[in-house]
Fold Putative monooxygenase YxeK.
Amino acid sequence: MIAARRSRQLHLNAFLKPPGEFLAAWRHPNAVPDAGVNIRHLIELARTAERAHFDALFFADLVGVPFADQEVLRRVSVVNDSFEPTTLLAALSTATTRIGLIATASTTYNEPYHLARTFASLDHLSRGRAGWNLVTSLNDAEARNFGLAEHVEHEERYRRAAEFHEVVTGLWDSFDDDAFRYDQTSGIYFDDDKLHRLDHRGRYFSVTGPLNIPRSPQGRPVVVQAGSSETGRSLAAAVADVVFTQHPDAAAARAFYVDIKARAAAAGRDPDHVVVLPALSTIVGRTLTEAEDKADRLYALLDPRVALADLAYWLGGVDLSAYPLDGPLPQLPLSNQSRSAQRLIVERARARNLTIRELARGLARDDRTIVSTPEGVADHIQEWFETQAADGFNVIFPYLPETLDDFANLVIPHLQRRGLFRTSYQGRTLRENLGLPRPASRYARGRAGA
Amino acid sequence: MIAARRSRQLHLNAFLKPPGEFLAAWRHPNAVPDAGVNIRHLIELARTAERAHFDALFFADLVGVPFADQEVLRRVSVVNDSFEPTTLLAALSTATTRIGLIATASTTYNEPYHLARTFASLDHLSRGRAGWNLVTSLNDAEARNFGLAEHVEHEERYRRAAEFHEVVTGLWDSFDDDAFRYDQTSGIYFDDDKLHRLDHRGRYFSVTGPLNIPRSPQGRPVVVQAGSSETGRSLAAAVADVVFTQHPDAAAARAFYVDIKARAAAAGRDPDHVVVLPALSTIVGRTLTEAEDKADRLYALLDPRVALADLAYWLGGVDLSAYPLDGPLPQLPLSNQSRSAQRLIVERARARNLTIRELARGLARDDRTIVSTPEGVADHIQEWFETQAADGFNVIFPYLPETLDDFANLVIPHLQRRGLFRTSYQGRTLRENLGLPRPASRYARGRAGA
């Protein structure tokens, strides 16, 4: 075990999926059922997270409604009925002052010019708090909203994502940081030798540029990436400032952590500048009994049909009805959607020898959810952090607002007392709070590009 | 002349292009030079417009930097360095409560699914205050950011725009207004027979849908359109809630007004539900001398090279250097960019027998700018409104914040005393304030679609 260096800081993102990550969260008596489009409620959640000094808010995204069984679909909320994340975070930028704002956006179904501009705009609006969670999208339902019959093939998506990222970061550097002189006397608004045309001609994109917005406060918004496949890890090591990941246990997390840091170093990057944040889902009570009661009341709200359909969805839209519910998960081909999600599920089934029914229930409950006391959760965080399984966590909230309130009010004070977590924001930008340097422009003279 | 009906309401949009519409506005001593990316300043402007009860804020857009002569480009600000409009308006949605929020977005370089979602999201965020200014984009600099060598041909752009609009409005109707039950007891989140898949297969787009957001507070965000060509007018009469237009004089405005209302009626629409708003640019002083002094001080800030380059730009990127500055505008072919802008300029040159130099100076100054007293501006507004040259105006501000402050503090009180303009917001949504009905969903049973 490597001893934690004194300078390491614990980082926490609030992964918000109102009314909660659990599929039946909206049925909880304290839930706000229309949370996905209720801006007053979201401002409350954002301010709670900011008072608790989370590094950032983090919103997932899909560009379609997965058309599973309608009988099931009508019983769930998950991302089918919520604000578009970049407009949501822009709205939250004027209702908050210090917390980071990370939105998910797809490289498979966007144009790099629009995406570069949207996130640069969000970084200006928030005065340096924007982050982009780069995803390659999930499924056929999304493809069919963009003129395609089926989802783009996995390796092809990643090739496109790498070029997309190259174009986006190039566009972010269009104007040098000191390009704008605003010299009212001479009439020179900006120095034209500090404006750069990209002239990108690649396999997937042809983009002349420049981007029509000044370089943003962070230079470049923070880039988050979550791929766990071989291709996904390579991309993360090459381009990600933050890696969002999920693991069945601490040993797997440590192996991933070592691997990503080594890959980053091999790519010529400082491993400390790739912040690894596994998922952490918690239900906290003042006593263990209280925590378990909360979990039991929540889980009782879930219709078993929904759990089964959710499992089939994450396995890539397979039909599980042909297999006995109390039998093992059959051998299934990897589909074209997120392979890391599929692999995690299959590994879990094998490792624990679960039936389909048990697997579905466990997935819905996120059976890695820690149901514990504040001390118990703090112990888990400290152990993973100090043994380098994590630089911090993407904290997932099974139901809102309660599990966020509990984390903020009960867990974070423990982390602060142990000296693990900040008691005030040290930085003004998200990069500063994450301990990341401000990247130099690719056009910066006499300096290495970042 | 048709007598004004009692029920007609004057409508005013604040067309904001910080630091001002005039090319040298940023050099004005009271200007905020970095206004394009200064959110605090923009919140101030938005709140001034809201206190004055403007119907809406209105932001133009380009998806590129027109690469004119660098010598010229570096002396101007115009849309090269500002927030992306939908994220900007999302940010302003939480800093305002009643004013409408209209953003420009291109049908030529966007995907309808993204655009439908972004504006539905903005309508939810603002609780019913969103508007989309549908444009087909302007020039080659934009095309080259999206993999094309040159701007899409004019008629082709409009065919695509019509289909794009059809897809967007269809997606906005994906969920019926009463689809979401949020019934915690039964576990039914929404009624699945109130969710509609679009299944659009057209010439330009193939979009399955549904859109992953509930139908928005206005049913559909307000659609603004500004085409003045034959094709542009047809599209406006068919689909626009608000028509933004520009005319050399009241007679031309009246002819356009009558034409658009007749076209709307012919298309089976209520002509009152197409709100015609010509541009109105003003510089106001308490006395005529004060107004003229303000204008002179502003115009003195403009470098003549910038004025000439701007003329060449609006004529579609022509090279005017081959022609004598003090000679007439030569016969030039219509380029592929906005034809109505080109026609307006050519008509102005012919009507007034202007030289190239005079035309350039007049265009930069917007020589239809009314330099007058508050009474003089109010007289103009009243005459155009009562003689049905206009249902109101898109008010353009030569330099900010001063011409907005002057309009709000000096002109609007006159309009209110004359009973022409509201003293408080009557409606909660932009549609209500514009006197427009809430459109029925295309899937509404037993009712005509809107």
Chain B touches chain A through 79 residues (CB under 8 Å). The longest helix of chain B spans residues 154-172. The longest strand of chain B covers residues 275-284. Confidence is low (pLDDT under 50) at residues 1-6 of chain B.
